Sequence to fold (117 residues):
Amino acid sequence: QVQLVESGGGLVQAGGSLRLSCAASGRTVSNYAMGWFRQATGKEREFVATSTWSGGSTYYADSVKGRFTISRDNDKNTVYLQMNSLKPEDTAVYYCATGPFPKYDYWGQGTQVTVSS
Fold:
């Protein structure tokens, strides 16, 4: 069974940084796309970033481009999201997901990120 466990969320002031981690079990992440999504209160879930098979390509939402970086450690079966220059509008529950790009068939439970102004 595939499980994804996110960590690293928390409360940070605007302009600060956080690094989210997503540890996978039951699937070798290097063989699949790994993505990050987020959902703010009262809004639909939105795409944030993705790293395709074995990290060959990365894609970002325009709203985070230049501020967020997705990366992998295939030896640890873990994907990261480095978030810099955080803004209050980045406040959301962040989810990682895995699947055969561009689809995602397994999701984590989410980690809360709150950015104060």
